[in-house]
């Protein structure tokens, strides 16, 4: 079973895909309904805005503190993991991550890997690499399983199959799972998935999982999940490989508690998830279960680029709750696939440029009205709109003197836009010239073009008023003098 | 977001920063805002050299260009008077982004910070500084309110319009669905991503119209142009009006020469 490799996403592609979804009333309605549901679930968990504010401030502090000590914490994490019997690997990019995991699989002659939900494994295209090496990598999270069966990519970081309706899934299972007939009964559908997966857990050579929080002080990996498949993946097969980004580390176990509480409430509106796994090493002597061997792969993939800049570093505070997507009016209109990145929505717009470079992603920071809904709900207070503006600047300009260029720096620069904004600055920083312009624009308003690029696709043309406010005020002054 | 308001007596003088949109595209709203202030006994000063807050360049990532335009506004408000802005997003630009824009120039930063402190969105100023108390003089009507994202999330003024309208006995304010959602304008976003922007504007127009209100109100010129332009293209007669104009009309104008009532 394969998923398609990540699609390259040049600006025109994004625009085209977005326009396609927007023109589909069925999809529009379905996304809107799903997002409304998630928004309401989250809101119900936060009845007291002041308390929420205090919690967000604390969570932000913890994430900032952790990042401020990142190199030291990573060293401490590694030392403690090794002490606990976990092998630690460092991967600078997706190829390295895949090679490491493939190497471990080969050591064990592995044929089958069962996977818990891991966005970093999506980010490095692990399934694709495993498939190319002839190893079956099977998703065991229900949403991921559905997406994999369909040969697609997740469209949401928490709910990978949110773009699929019950009917889509019924059809998919009937087509792809041997011996299953069409049913729209959700419980029956879930049971189909369970039956398939249950057996695979027993047969798998390798269990792969993500990590929500890595605790430096104890060398523990925390895994948040609802289906129990994460626990199966990390305990049943003989080898457990965890994969995560280098930013996920916190110093102490107690730092996990406030983050966990906000993560589940922000993501699915749950006060707590059904499962919370704290994994501190492989099976020990005398223990009856657990993997005999355990690995952690720590992936950089552009994170150090974000880390190097004080402002952009805030991107790494993210705990991947998905609330920014759920509340994003753009994501709600176009869904996750239009972005063409592993992480869609607002978080995707600010993190993908570091992972894929600005040449492939420069359009994404611009795919926002800067309405601020994302920053308002982000549990770790990432100022997403400010970061979008910053990336818009980096995408259209050379690096500032003394600053290292980002990968793909300036790739979105166009002569048209540069000239337009130069013209804007020229006109609006010269009051006398602007007054002349305003005078002309109002007098010659009949010359206003009726086709105004994107604006008039769905709106009537913009036309200056017959008299500007300045004109009206000047007239009033004359009137006043006359009436004296 | 909620600010500390200046203590002390009611100001006698204010500056009015019209914004480029109001100056050229909805000057009537600017006039009505000025008259609302004047009726409270305030002298309104309109610096002739004002142009634009620089926001279009700033949000598009052209910080140098935004700085050039913003710099041209910094010296226009020398007296220590409040600066009233009839648009949430431009007020937000001056109040929150000017100090950041000049972060690396201590002299200009000090100026920008001083200005930022004095910037008020119109409804905020009317309600919180002037404590206006109005009597409604219009026929019963139903309206719905679109609060801009900047008013809501940058200025924290989204409830002020509601409170002002609550003073008007004949005005019923109807609740739209997805009230806090953006109308899809987003400055240059509306031309860079026309399909998404158009879909958002269209959904917003639907939500406002579905309330059954006679009209919708907004304190932001950009949102008004976006939603009204969408409705007009659909040949729908439902329209939005700037909050300032509505307030001026409902409260009877001043009876003076330039009152809306007289012009009509
Ligand atoms: S950016 Fe904030 S809201 Fe978005 S996924 Fe990350 S933590 Fe959640």
From TrEMBL, chain A:
Gene3D superfamilies listed in its UniProt record: Alpha-helical ferredoxin (1.10.1060.10), NagB/RpiA/CoA transferase-like (3.40.50.10420)
The entry's keywords: 4Fe-4S, Electron transport, Iron, Iron-sulfur, Metal-binding, Repeat, Transport
Classification via InterPro entries: 4Fe4S_Fe-S-bd (IPR017896), 4Fe4S_Fe_S_CS (IPR017900), FTHF_cligase-like_sf (IPR024185), Helical_ferredxn (IPR009051), LUD_dom (IPR003741), LutB/LldF (IPR004452), LutB_C (IPR024569), NagB/RpiA_transferase-like (IPR037171)
GO annotation (BP), single: lactate metabolic process
Domain 4Fe-4S ferredoxin-type span(s) in chain numbering: 308-337
Any one Gene Ontology molecular-function term assigned to this protein's record: metal ion binding
PANTHER family: LACTATE UTILIZATION PROTEIN B
Official protein name in the record: Iron-sulfur cluster-binding protein
Species: Candidatus Proximibacter danicus
Higher taxonomy: Bacteria, Pseudomonadati, Pseudomonadota, Betaproteobacteria, Candidatus Proximibacter
From TrEMBL, chain B:
Any GO molecular function: oxidoreductase activity
Superkingdom assignment: Bacteria
Domain Cysteine-rich: 14-95, 143-227
Gene Ontology CC: one annotated term: cytosol
UniProt name for this protein: (Fe-S)-binding protein
Species this protein is from: Candidatus Proximibacter danicus
